Amino acid sequence: VHVVESGGGLVQPGGSPRLSCAASGFTFHIYDMSWYRQAPGKERELVATISHLGRSTNYADSVKGRFTISRDNVKNMVYLDMNNLKPEDTAVYYCSVNRGGVLYWGQGTQVIVSS
Predict the structure, then answer these.
(1) Per-residue pLDDT, 84
(2) CA 50: distance to chain centroid?
(3) Sheet holding 77-82, edge to edge
(4) Between the chain's N and C termini, which has fewer beta carbons within 10 Å?
(5) String of DSSP letters for 3-29
(6) For residue 91, how many C-alpha atoms fall within 13 Å in the half-sphere facing its CB?
(7) CA distance 49 to 26
């Protein structure tokens, strides 16, 4: 199982970056996929989840209405479109799959929201 996140960086408040996650090594289209984040000094938290066919999504209250998770089961990609970013969104963002009860993570991509 291999997931690789990209798309982070320094973003101004109110910005709208897109994070991407490339997945390989497993049958992508049968697994729900998630984005987590970990802010400095805080525990990792679940940000968003998308069902295996993309028909259902769930979000943390803190990002609901601002972030959108999506997937492309042909390209084995997961995306997180982030809008109206706030300084409290600063964190390392991780793509994740729960496969057989084991959570697999990528190396993460850092998002810093600052002017």
Answers:
(1) 97
(2) 10
(3) 2-6, 18-24, 77-82, 67-72
(4) C
(5) EEEE--EEE-TT---EEEEEEESS-GG
(6) 21
(7) 18
pLDDT at 81: 98
Q: What is the mean pLDDT of each run of 10 residues along the chain (115 residues)?
A: 96 97 96 97 97 97 98 98 97 95 94 96
Judge whether 4 and 22 are in contact, CB under 8 Å: yes
pLDDT at site 100: 87
Strands (DSSP E) found in the chain: 2-6, 9-11, 18-24, 33-38, 45-50, 57-59, 67-72, 77-82, 91-99, 102-105, 109-113
Task: Identify the burial level of 28 via C-beta atoms within 10 angstroms of its C-beta, where 0-12 means exposed, 13-18 middle and 19 or more buried.
Answer: buried
- Cα gap 92→55, rounded to integer Å: 26
Token pair of 103 as six digits? 């959570």
